[in-house]
Amino acid sequence: MIESWEIAGGILEYIDETHTYSENGYIPDWQFMNDYINSLLTQILAFHSANDLKIAVFTSEKNKKKWDFIRFIPHCWSEDKTKRFFATNPDEYKEIASYLDEQFKLRTENLNKINPADSESDDPKERRRLYKSNPPYYLIITDDYKSIKNFSI
Question: Three-state DSSP class for 63?
């Protein structure tokens, strides 16, 4: 269980990191789940430009077709259009994870250069302001958690 998690400038507290439906004896309707996820993605893409939001997909070769439509949207490309955030095997997972890790480190360094005292602030409003002032944001999607859990981002 995660004690707290910062998301979109706010803090979510006491949430499960993952949830397995079969633990509760509930078998989900996979078509409903797929439609629900596609609906969420459609809304996200409609309200966020590719300059503000990047989407990284980590999937398996087996599930590649399910996410194929995302490969071609501008949200799935790096700022310089040289890297596509769509991975289906461990080599691609590693490449994208290291790229994202590098981007997050640069972001942290840039925030520290702007105002070192503010970057370590405990004030939620100040943390939200700093978060919002540093796009693009990254949405990471996976349907193969077991394969990617050892890659640090």
Answer: coil
